[in-house]
Amino acid sequence: MSAAAEFDQPPPQSSAPAGLTIAVVGPTAVGKSALAIDLAHALGGEVINADSMQLYQGMDIGTAKVTAAQMQSIPHHLLDIWPVTQTASVATYQELARATIAQIHARGKAAILVGGSGLYVRAALDDLEFPGVSPIVRAKLEVEAEQLGTAALFDRLLSADPLAATAIGPDNVRKIIRALEVVELKGSFSATLPTYTYLIPAIQIGVTMPRPVLDERIAQRVERMFADGLVDEVRALIDLGLRDGVTASKALGYAQVIEFLDGQLSLEQAHTLTAATTRRFVRRQESWFNRDPRIAWLSGHAPGQLMTQAQSLIAQFSPTIKG
């Protein structure tokens, strides 16, 4: 199935309960965006982005950001709000997402959160507060990362907070440093994520696929990204300061293309590494979302059935979550 086919033929619109909030979650490449748009058409809703990298201006091809045509006139919020030089802040996102949900509800519309950044979804919906920062502790950890390497800091996090280490993985030095910073300040990073308690009640729909099918979709997506001009997109973003972006420069695909442009990888190696890194990232996404007992999982293998099942789920649970 082509990418465009995922966005064809919106369903007829029906009414939705006032104050309805839906979250469409799951790993990369399962078809979350298409389902969110179909639900927005069916329910009279608006879409809110919960993908941390789609917050960045100009990061379109590598993040599979929906185009204006694919949006099908459905309002989309929290896309393209930050320059690539800005460091991501989940606390800032939390404020923006909650304000956006309130505004959509005030218009009598359903708010449909969509994305694969699990912490951002929880930040928007859950009774979740984020610990402060310590520039002194962070600077110390950044120096240690340069001197000792990412692997050494990951091993330290693995000993101090195995749950956090498993969720973050060994490659994301920025998140490893942040987790160690919180460990030093609070004693545990995982302990700062409380039990799954909604501040904004929601229906969470998880989209899943068999692992071989998803791996093939990832391969096709990466192939399409490079064919559609990812390298040129990265070149343009470098002119806008991408290399200085602590968060944006580490995004899947973008980091590998930067290495290609710097002569550290061949184009084929950048392509292969992007696909492999994306597959590892998907495993971590699955692990994160599988811990949340509130998510109702549906198969994305047959998009037509997915929409029918999602509508049935919403009809079943929406009376219990109205404000």
Automatic annotation (TrEMBL):
Signal peptide: none
Cofactor(s) essential for the protein: Mg(2+)
Top-level EC class: transferase
Reactions performed catalytically: adenosine(37) in tRNA + dimethylallyl diphosphate = N(6)-dimethylallyladenosine(37) in tRNA + diphosphate
GO MF term set: ATP binding; tRNA dimethylallyltransferase activity
Keywords: ATP-binding, Magnesium, Nucleotide-binding, Transferase, tRNA processing
Pfam families reported for this sequence: IPPT
Annotated GO biological process: tRNA modification
EC number: 2.5.1.75
Family: Belongs to the IPP transferase family.
UniProt xrefs under HAMAP family: IPP_trans
Entry-linked PANTHER family: TRNA DIMETHYLALLYLTRANSFERASE (PTHR11088:SF60)
Protein name stated in the entry: tRNA dimethylallyltransferase
Organism for this UniProt entry: freshwater metagenome
